[in-house]
Amino acid sequence: MTRASQDALSRTALSVFRLNGQFLGVSEKLAEPAGLTAAWWQVLGAVLPEPLPVAGIARVMGITRQSVQRIADLLVREGLAAYEPNPAHRRAKLLAPTEEGRAAIGRIDPGHAELAAALARELGGQEAFDDTVRVLARLSEAMETVGANFRAPTAGADPDDVQGA
């Protein structure tokens, strides 16, 4: 790996960490009037198109199954989601939004639309926004590919000999 690549990786990681914090902050603001947290919104949003098992939600979101399980149980307790039988797996129930959960997500929509429009303007229009989405999706795909095979070098190893580097 060249020094330029290392610097680019560091800048990218720091930018993504900052962006994650920014998204979480604004998501909390958007979700609060609907009686949700950003995490609750994230899990409910993952199952809006179709019910999913907790492990499937975790894969889609890129977080641990245990984190999703904790949030899913809270959503069920609050009446925003329900567990349904899973025809593909007897023990791994599917999480599905209830009508109350769908209504809560619907209350977020006006603020979400306003934020999307503001971001599109700030980025220079919808085409620039779409380009940004494509670049971030490509970065995520690359990290998935590289990260799946990456092994950190042992002390004193030559960085050029590390698989995945």
Question: What would you say this structure looks like, in words?
Answer:
Residues 6-141 form the HTH marR-type domain. This protein is mainly alpha-helical. The chain has six helices and three strands. The chain has helices at 3-31, 38-47, 54-61, 65-77, 99-123, 126-149, and strands at residues 52-53, 81-84, 94-97. It has a three-stranded antiparallel sheet.
Summarize the SSE layout with pairings:
Blueprint: H1 3-31, H2 38-47, E1 52-53, H3 54-61, H4 65-77, E2 81-84, E3 94-97, H5 99-123, H6 126-149
Helix pairs in contact: 2-4, 3-4, 5-6
Pfam families: MarR_2 (PF12802)
Organism: Streptomyces zaomyceticus
Domain HTH marR-type: 6-141
- The CATH class, by name, is Mainly Alpha
Counted beta strands: 3
Mean pLDDT: 92
| Number of self-contained structural domains | 1
Helix content: 55-70%
Label this structure with key terms:
6 helices, 165 residues, Arc Repressor Mutant, subunit A, WH_DNA-bd_sf, MarR/SlyA-like, MarR family transcriptional regulator, WH-like_DNA-bd_sf, mainly alpha
How would you briefly describe this protein structure?
This protein is mainly alpha-helical.
